[in-house]
Amino acid sequence: MTDSSEHDGRRRGLAAWRKAERTLWRAPVESTVGERLAALASAADAGAASGLYDPDEWTDVYGDGIVAELERRVARTLGTEAAAFFPTGTMAQQVALRCWAGRTGNATVALHPLSHPEVHEGGALSVVSGLRTTHPTVAPRLPTADEVRDCDEPFGTLMLELPLRDAGFVLPSWEELTAVVDAARERDAVVHFDGARLWECAPHLGRTLPEIAELADSVYVSFYKSLGAMSGAALAGPASLVAEARVWRHRYGGQLFQQYPAALSALLGLERELPRLPEYVAHAKVVAAALADGFRAAGVPWFRVRPEPPHTHQFQVWLPYGAELLTEAAVRQAEETGVTLFRRWFEDVPPGVAVTEVTVAAAGLEWTRQDVLDAVADFAGRLRG
User: Fold this and answer.
1) CA–CA separation, 266 vs 52, rounded Å?
2) DSSP letter at 302?
3) How many other CB atoms are found less than 10 A from the CB of residue 21?
């Protein structure tokens, strides 16, 4: 597919999914610039009315004002001493891991080969920050305590992505997680949580966010992945680490002049979306079970819902068809029926198998089990056609 045709296909999909009357979630990228700005302004008025922030305060300048308020809110929510706002999670984690390398004297980071820095950051840990990585396991799950203990080489930091997105948004149990952290401590390593989606981990782990964050020496969280903010991330942990991270943030070019739209949208996400995430997680289990039953009833030759049941409000679906065929069926279903069940599909291994990610959020709460079964039957019929 050429770049222009891929661009046209993406715009077609966005238009179809945006107009759909029924969907499992509304992705922010499906809104126009005008719609996004209008929604932020409306939410800002409501937030000011509820006392979320003072609209008469001056806008931020290099991290004060509403940005500083967001940092305080994150630290309170996670139960850490301090937090620093970053424009991207990639920068936040590089800074965190670089700071820990300096403090431990070991520039090797133990992490999963499917973790975000290894798959989605262009080798930035080594190319930009001079760090090395080692992999305690290649299994599609977080490492076990024994795998951490038996890792072949010394490492200064163990980084755990919670949940591990590219393995299917999978999480360990609370007992497994604490055992892994203890194993890292036995090796005199610090522990950093890649918590881009940490917000929705509490139901599966059965603990509060402060209890989860307390296990680690530092935690990164994202504001746009689950909370619906425009952009931004935070690094939370001990005050001394956060102070050092602020210096490196400036060196990395992350000390932006003004960031109030992103900070405001993040505050609104913490206020509005965070309390609803357990509800999304619970309903994702209903949706996933109905998807599996629908595929069986439709006679689909092979499928996987991973994990089953989901650990968060997001999970993977695998089908034995080409990604182009599946994406076309998803777009046509939205265009012709006003129902968005799936979005884009991607080729995976083995050849002839494709995978997509399913998110269940506020819009998905309206779906009954029968709604899912009906949508799967229609989708499967399009594949046969």
Assistant:
1) 11
2) -
3) 10
Place of tokens 């595929």: 295
| Cα separation, 250 vs 247, whole angstroms | 5
Quick check: 345 and 263 in contact, CB under 8 A? no
23, containing H or E segment: strand 22-23
What are the tokens at 92? 């936040």
DSSP letters, 319-331, are ESS-HHHHHHHHH
Q: Are residues 54 and 48 in contact, defined by beta-carbon separation less than 8 angstroms?
A: yes
Total residues belonging to the chain: 385
Residue 192's Cβ-count burial label (10 Å; 0-12, 13-18, 19+) is: buried
Terminal-residue alpha carbon distance, the chain: 23
Q: What is the DSSP string of 131-168?
A: -EEE-S--SSSPPPHHHHHT-SS--SEEEEESSBGGGT
Q: Give the Cα separation of 111 and 115 in Å (integer).
A: 7
Share of the chain above pLDDT 70, in %: 98
Which single residue is written with the structure tokens 């039957």?
377
Tokens of 324: 């182009």
Range of weakest confidence among 152-166, 170-184, 309-323, 337-351: 337-351
**Is the bond preceding 309 in cis, omega lying within 30 degrees of 0?**
yes
Planar angle of CA 119, 123, 125, nearest 5 degrees: 110
Give the Cα separation of 157 and 133 in Å (integer): 10
Identity of the residue numbered 190: V
Residue range 232-284, pLDDT digits in tens: 999 999 999 999 999 999 999 999 999 999 999 999 999 999 999 999 999 99
Q: Are 335 and 16 in contact (CB under 8 A)?
A: yes
Contact status, residue 71 vs residue 85, Cβ threshold 8 Å: yes
Q: Distance between alpha carbon 89 and the CA centroid of its chain, in Å?
A: 10
Amino acid making up residue 180: V
